[in-house]
Structure formats: structure tokens, C-alpha cells
Design a protein that fits this description.
This protein has ten helices and 13 strands. α1 packs parallel to α2. The longest helix is centred in the first third of the chain and has 16 residues. The radius of gyration is 18 Å and the shape is globular. The protein binds S-adenosylmethionine. S-adenosylmethionine binds next to β6, β7, β8 and α5.
Length: about 280
């Protein structure tokens, strides 16, 4: 942090910088550096190892998309596994689906504790929800060892560096597949393809041999700058990605979802990929 400004260090040649009006926390857990500060436009901001993770202002876009797209496309989900997601925003969105029980596996208890303390508006009490189970463990080890099976697996990870690196490997994806019930759907945080080309290309080439349908869906998240954020999609259910808009609309209504970004039109449109993204899937 320099003076009153915080510069993200994700890229060597490109930076976004936030005005800091208050630092709420600046320290280290056993796994990573953690900073939480306040910005006049985005509200409270969570940073791990120099990389912006989420902000009060725009977290709804990322969390709604990565939770509701697979759960609504699945249509009958009863169980979901969230790998990472220590801020609780994904857990909150998964629990909006009354029929779904959620397991969250986060490596760093420190992230959960600090987010509960300083960013309670993101989890909105979901860590204490009766349909939530929280496990403190390495997500890669969890999926390699668990006997549980899930309808949807959501990888809400940091970028492929530090503790999150293992969540982008072929072995991890194969173990996620093993944890899915028949027709289950795996979705992943796959970076901003304009700036993180190799994240998308590697995710695609590692998922492709494992599942019959592998693709991405996109959403613009203002603090993940550089254009669309991409989310990986992998399943053996060939129909799920092509669920028609009226069916999506019905399911959203039946689930009684209250959302600020996600709706049936967005759901269908999000699978339309620009050519520069398709090229990375060659
Ligand atoms: N929305 C965010 C983004 O795209 O920048 C991700 C947010 S969430 C805070 C990411 C979480 O993944 C962090 O809390 C981190 O501790 C957790 N994490 C990283 N590596 C992990 C691992 N191997 N197993 C489980 N959780 C992990």
C-alpha cells in the first residue's frame, strides 16, 4: 500500500489502484497475506496475496453467476460442494436454493474469520445456516478423499498461485469428477481471459479429456478488470448447457430467487463466447 492507495499486483505490466479510506486488517495467515480496506466506490475490499478477491460493491455479479447458473441448469440439485469461497458469498447464493445442502471446503480459517468480522454483508450469516457445513481443509485433498457425491461442484478459488495453484490441475479436476453424481456439473473460476489467456486455455485442455461437455460462461465483474470474467463449465449432461430460456425462467421463479445480476436472459446469453475466447479453446 502506498499512502492512501492500494495497487493490485496480479500482473507485472498492468495495475488497478484503489483509494483507501480505511485499512481494517493487514496481516498474514499461515497460507497467505490478507488485507481488508475500504474504498469509497466499492465499499470493503478483500485482498489475498496482493490480488483483489471480492468487494462489497460488485461481489453479487461473480457469486450469483457461479452459483445460480449450474444450480438452475441442473434443475434438481440437492447437494453442492464449494471449494474455496472463504468470504461466504458463494455459500449465501447456494443456500438461496431451499432444496440444496452446501459443503464449503476452505483451506484458510483466517479468511473465514476475518470476512465474518469485517465483511458480514457478503456472507449474510450463511456460515451458521442449518443447510451449511464448513470444512477447513485443502480442497484438493478433500475431493481426493471424500466418499460424498454432489450434484454441483463450485470451485471458488484464488488464482493459480499459492494455495490455489493445486485447484487448477488435471488431478484436481479428475477428483472433482469422481465427486459428482451422475449428470452433475462442475464450474470453476477461470480468470479474465483477455489478461489471463493461459488460465482459460489450461483449464479447457485439462477438463476436455474428462467430461463430454466442456465450455465457459462469462460475466463482466468490474473489479476483475480486463473485460469478461470466464467461468469453466464441465459435465457429462449434454443438455444442461442448452436448457431453453423459458425453462430457466420457470426454474428461477420456482426457486423464488432474488438476484441483482442473474436472470434467465443472462443465463442463456452468458454461454455466448467472443471469438478471442473461443480461440483459446482450440
Ligand atoms: N471470488 C474470488 C476471486 O475470483 O478472486 C475468490 C474468492 S475466495 C476468497 C478464494 C478462496 O479460496 C480463499 O479464501 C482461499 O483461501 C481459498 N483457497 C485457496 N486455495 C485453496 C485450497 N487449496 N483449498 C481450499 N481453499 C482454497
Amino acid at each position: 500500500m502506498t499512502g492512501q492507495w492500494y495497487s493490485e499486483t496480479l500482473y507485472p505490466d498492468f495495475r488497478q489502484t484503489f483509494e483507501v479510506t480505511r485499512v481494517l486488517y493487514d496481516g498474514r495467515s499461515g497460507f497467505q497475506g490478507i488485507v481488508i480496506f475500504e474504498n469509497p466506490r466499492f465499499g470493503r475490499v478483500l485482498v489475498l496475496d496482493g490480488v483483489i478477491q471480492t468487494t462489497e460493491g460488485d461481489e453479487f455479479i461473480y457469486h450469483e453467476m457461479l452459483a445460480h447458473v449450474p444450480l438452475i441448469a441442473h434443475g434438481r440439485a440437492e447437494t453442492a460442494l464449494i471449494v474455496g469461497g472463504g468470504d461466504g458469498g458463494m455459500l449465501r447464493r447456494v443456500l438461496q436454493h431451499d432444496s440444496v445442502r452446501a459443503t464449503l471446503v476452505e483451506i484458510d480459517q483466517g479468511v473465514i474469520d476475518l470476512c465474518r468480522q469485517y465483511l458480514p454483508s457478503i456472507s449474510e450469516g450463511s456460515f451458521d445456516h442449518p443447510r451449511a457445513k464448513v470444512v477447513i481443509a485443502d480442497g484438493a485433498k478433500f475431493v481426493a478423499e471424500t466418499d460424498e457425491r454432489f450434484d454441483v461442484v463450485i470451485v471458488d478459488s484464488t488464482d493459480p498461485m499459492g494455495p490455489g495453484e493445486v485447484l487448477f490441475t488435471s488431478a484436481f479436476y479428475a477428483d472433482c469428477k469422481r465427486c459428482l453424481k451422475d449428470g452433475g456439473i462442475l464450474v470453476t473460476q477461470s480468470g479474465v481471459p483477455f489478461l489471463q489467456k493461459s488460465v482459460l486455455a489450461n483449464t479447457y485442455s485439462r477438463l476436455k479429456p474428462l467430461f463430454s461437455d466442456v465450455s465457459f460462461f462469462v460475466a463482466p465483474v468490474p473489479t476483475y478488470s480486463g473485460g469478461f470474467m470466464a467461468f469453466g463449465w464441465a459435465t457429462d449432461n449434454l443438455e444442461a448447457r442448452r436448457t431453453p430460456q423459458p425453462v430457466i425462467e420457470e426454474r428461477i421463479e420456482a426457486a423464488g430467487l432474488s438476484t441483482r445480476y442473474y436472470n434467465a436472459d443472462i443465463h442463456v446469453a452468458a454461454f455466448g463466447l467472443p471469438n478471442y475466447v473461443r480461440a483459446l479453446m482450440a
